[in-house]
Design a protein that fits this description.
There is one protein chain. The chain has about 325 residues and is mainly α. Helices cover about 75% and strands about 0% of the residues. The chain has helices at about 1-25, 40-75, 75-80, 90-100, 105-115, 120-135, 135-145, 150-175, 185-190, 200-235, 240-245, 250-260, 270-275, 280-295, 295-305, 310-335. Helix 4 (about 90-100) runs parallel beside helix 6. It is a multi-pass membrane protein.
Length: about 325
């Protein structure tokens, strides 16, 4: 009874904060805060923070509802039936799956976590985690529109994402051999023992319950990541980036770091990347477009919250090294 009351209180506080957030955004003029002599940089932090959160929330909602539908309707037996038993044979179908669902990196973490909890092999989840935010049709359309004058970037982004997602999944399979890397709460461990399917009309109720619970759980990590990203966007000296943008080695590294701290939604990052077209090389732009959706600041915080630290650190190193080496190889091939 005490636990139930505590859950109700936390949900009420979370809902109240969301209502307050929406009210402040819609009805309060940020410029009115100037009477408190708030520095312009901090007002800019506020603006960027709001833009990241508002951009991400619809996709977080999409992600948690898809996650809740998986929890309610997808059984462990179904996953075991349709995922190839051979770990290497399962890699390509996982990458192809990412090309079907319109899910960006803002929403992918809860979906992958739920799929792994349902029995999806870890390395297959990793392929989906890094591939789906780029390969999905909405991202392809936005990239195509943003780079109408340079179709090479469009197709190179999709091709690299497909190939690299498989390579990253393979490397992590060789490292972890699909050992459990999820952080389980006491409630979830208890739920492992009670895996009876939800029957009848309770499925709809269960879906909304899981979605709301996961939304409030993930929301705090989104807010933390968005705030840190907004600080980097405001106080990072971009003139330094432009000075080294033409360097074939430093350029991709800088743009990967830029993509990491900006934490842009993969369905909108192409428009930001296109603005750097006259400053950075094609390889650097591709590094930004491939690395950012696979790994950014807000996703890192979510990953550390739901996966074991050793796995997250290894995942970050593998993604960074694989993407950087791939960009260097791509640049060399284009000059041949």
């Amino acid at each position: 009874m005490k636990g139930s009351f505590s859950t109700i209180v936390k949900d009420f506080i979370g809902l109240a904060l969301i209502v307050l957030f929406i009210y402040l955004f819609l009805f309060v003029d940020i410029s009115s805060f100037n009477k408190f002599n708030i520095p312009r940089d901090w007002l800019n932090v506020n603006t960027i923070f709001l833009s990241i959160v508002l951009e991400a929330i619809p996709f977080i909602l999409l992600g948690v509802f898809v996650s809740a539908l998986i929890q309610t309707f997808v059984s462990e037996q179904w996953l075991q039936k349709y995922i190839p038993k051979n770990p290497f044979a399962a890699l390509i179908p996982a990458a192809l799956l990412g090309a079907i669902f319109p899910i960006c990196e803002c929403a992918i973490v809860p979906i992958v976590r739920r799929l792994i909890k349902k029995g999806m092999p870890l390395h297959v989840g990793v392929v989906f985690l890094v591939g789906a935010p780029i390969l999905n049709p909405v991202v392809f359309a936005s990239t195509y529109y943003a780079f109408q004058s340079n179709k090479e970037i469009v197709y190179a982004r999709m091709g690299l994402a497909f190939i690299l997602s498989i390579i990253i999944g393979l490397i992590l399979y060789l490292i972890f051999k699909n050992k459990d890397q999820i952080k389980w709460s006491m409630e979830e461990i208890a739920g492992k023992r009670n895996t009876e399917p939800v029957l009848g009309g309770n499925k709809l109720k269960a879906t909304f319950y899981h979605a709301s619970d996961e939304f409030f759980d993930m929301g705090k990590y989104l807010i933390m990541g968005a705030f840190i990203a907004s600080l980097f966007q405001t106080f990072l000296d971009r003139s330094i980036l432009q000075a080294i943008g033409s360097n074939e080695v430093l350029g991709p590294l800088v743009m990967m770091g830029f993509a990491y701290v900006l934490s842009l939604c993969s369905e909108a990052d192409a428009f930001v990347a296109s603005s750097f077209g006259n400053t950075f090389t094609t390889g650097s732009i591709l590094a930004f477009l491939v690395y950012g959706p696979m790994l950014d600041l807000k996703n890192t915080i979510m990953l550390f919250a739901y996966f074991k630290a050793r796995f997250v650190i290894c995942f970050m190193v593998v993604v960074t090294v694989v993407v950087f080496l791939a960009i260097l190889i791509y640049q060399q091939m284009t000059f041949i």
